[in-house]
Amino acid sequence: MAKKNAFYAQSGGVTAVINASACGVIQTARKHKDKIGKVYAGRNGIIGALTEDLIDTSKETDAAIAALRSTPSGAFGSCRFKLKSLEANKREYERLIEVFKAHNIGYFFYNGGGDSADTCFKVSQLSESMGYPIQAIHVPKTVDNDLPITDCCPGFGSVAKYIAVSTLEASFDVRSMAKTSTRVFVIEVMGRHAGWIAAAGGLVADQGIPVVILFPEIEFDQKKFLAAVKKKVDASGYCTIVVSEGCHYPDGKFLAEQGTRDAFGHAQLGGAAPVVANMIKLAHGYKFHWAVADYLQRSARHIASKTDVKQAYELGKKAVELAIKGHNSVMPTVDRISDSPYKYKIGMAPLSKVANVEKFMPRDFISKDGYGITEKCRRYLAPLIQGEDYPRYEDGLPQYVTLKNVAVAKKLKAFEI
Amino acid sequence: MAKKNAFYAQSGGVTAVINASACGVIQTARKHKDKIGKVYAGRNGIIGALTEDLIDTSKETDAAIAALRSTPSGAFGSCRFKLKSLEANKREYERLIEVFKAHNIGYFFYNGGGDSADTCFKVSQLSESMGYPIQAIHVPKTVDNDLPITDCCPGFGSVAKYIAVSTLEASFDVRSMAKTSTRVFVIEVMGRHAGWIAAAGGLVADQGIPVVILFPEIEFDQKKFLAAVKKKVDASGYCTIVVSEGCHYPDGKFLAEQGTRDAFGHAQLGGAAPVVANMIKLAHGYKFHWAVADYLQRSARHIASKTDVKQAYELGKKAVELAIKGHNSVMPTVDRISDSPYKYKIGMAPLSKVANVEKFMPRDFISKDGYGITEKCRRYLAPLIQGEDYPRYEDGLPQYVTLKNVAVAKKLKAFEI
């Protein structure tokens, strides 16, 4: 039997470094042409597999693949699509096998977070459950940093760096303005369930910035929060607030859900930042500014963490090496050895223990009052934002690659998802 | 008579490079110790002069002053405070003279935008109107890029670079997600009256990004706008919208003023971005994400334009040189010689022609449909974002300087503003 081809796809929210993992996968596969044939990328994640919409990455030059390392976003397109269980939707699994067979695919690399690990895990069971020999390896990725076992997740370090740098810079700004103008700056960050990204804002406290963090792990107490802000402003003349999009009241209602309606009575979707800012204005009268970083934070390849880029690449590379060694249903992990100097090795975890498990901030990473980070958290975060890995610029703009993404000729009938 | 001391202050909204101008002023004054005594900085702008709250910059090391070049925000504090006319508030002018006399101040360097140029102009008239010999030189600064005569304003190039880079990165992100998730990304940028910053978002069109820009100079037409967005999404699968905070309806009402009220009936201050995003969702059903960059854009020293940093420094330096040559009531300017290769020289304009004049985007910088930039605009903007000027990092964070800001001993009675 001829050597098998590989399938690679990107899943869920993309990051500044998911393409660095793609680069690690494809470059490593190219180095092992005796073992792995072509790497076919799914256009828009697993949907590309289901619809037989495959991209032939062998049509891309080595230079283009190398440029993925410094290009944010998902070069092959991503998707938000979770495979149902085998019992609930056998048709989809049969289709996957049909596509894999048609294109001689024996390796399945899936690059994503918790939901995607579940998809990858299900695919990894196909050998056993449906008799199709496949090796499925999950490549971790999530800005939320909420995958278990691995010490951190590629994508997170760069968002953390972006938030720490941006919070520092905006805090310098508000400090300059506080005498006659803005006294409070609110920045809203991602993290619906876990406060890892918000915690990164806490790193600026080392530089003397008065900062109050609102974590999703800590139930929002308006009175206590307003008192904490006043205390900071009284002491320093200004204050920066980092609010996680997932910050919520004890009853589970998000701060962003204020039941606001526009002039026509339509419910308005707003951010948590303006809600927090207005709340402070009403209570204390402080002039405020607020920002919602949204996609800017997770796509900010221009200020990516060098550590993060390196790990993203290494995990992609390791995934291919594990496949070549015969592994299935695993995920390469970052195993921390020491904080300072920062040392780690690339390890491995079984997917059964990764899929659908969320890792929250430990309580001892959050200060007693609930509004800051502890020294333990600082020691954890600090190495993850270390180092700069600047993209190449031309005419003032980063030169990010857009691949040709040549489609592989279809061999099968169309499939409706 | 002993040589005179200089007064320097920062005014209005601060920028990523206003401290580079401060660096230019102070370093150049230090090189001309035969002509200029000490440089006293006003703590919080002109308020520092009125309240005799002066900072002795001679207490700062050469290294600290050099570090200003790569530190965002206003190192001495800024203010939003405009001197009234001499007729309306003679008391303030008398106080200024009292403070200048007490501290032997003969040079007045004011670093700000249009309102500040007005303050500087009024001070420059003191020799004539009140018999106190002073040379007042304005150092231009404004992210809004709306000062007349000068080709561009320090602070603008760096914001433009930040917005162009961020728009590019977020657009790559939404392009990755568009198949099953977000199809429209909206980024709100500064610029209440002039669309210069919004225009910078248009630079990404060169890289094939479908972008729609909402300028304050173009009255908002909802139906036409929604059609423009649909056309882009139909053609490319996604679309990025750059909306200026100053975008407004024909009756002058800002998009951000939607008359929204929270559950308690309080009027809500929101951004233009969520308004635009919700509008698109209602009309076309596209999933959206939105960001409000706010202070992040103007404080983003980490991605400052090298051209901008250089010009900010040069204009500060030139201000001192003009003072030494005996000039009063002028502002050094950037005079463009050619677009490509980009060449300019530092010129000079009379403050009487600068104060209170706003420079808007010329209509021929905006495309016919009102939603993009023209080639002429692109040629204007491109050189201003050229080059990177990275700050020094340690432990993953930029090392920005915080000065000692040692106060000069007061000699006068307190003054109530």
UniProtKB/TrEMBL annotation, chains A, B:
GO terms for cellular component: cytoplasm. Its main location: cytoplasm. Keywords: Cytoplasm, Glycolysis, Kinase, Magnesium, Metal-binding, Transferase. Diphosphate binds at G13. It is an enzyme of class 2 (transferase). It is found in: Cytoplasm. Residues 9-322 form the Phosphofructokinase domain. It comes from the Bacteria. One of its GO terms (molecular function) is diphosphate-fructose-6-phosphate 1-phosphotransferase activity. Non-allosteric. Its cofactor is Mg(2+). The keyword Cell wall biogenesis/degradation does not apply. The active site is at D144 (proton acceptor). The record marks D115 as: Important for catalytic activity and substrate specificity. Belongs to the phosphofructokinase type A (PFKA) family. PPi-dependent PFK group II subfamily. Clade 'B2' sub-subfamily. Catalyzes the phosphorylation of D-fructose 6-phosphate, the first committing step of glycolysis. Uses inorganic phosphate (PPi) as phosphoryl donor instead of ATP like common ATP-dependent phosphofructokinases (ATP-PFKs), which renders the reaction reversible, and can thus function both in glycolysis and gluconeogenesis. Consistently, PPi-PFK can replace the enzymes of both the forward (ATP-PFK) and reverse (fructose-bisphosphatase (FBPase)) reactions. This is Pyrophosphate--fructose 6-phosphate 1-phosphotransferase. It comes from Sulfuriferula plumbiphila.
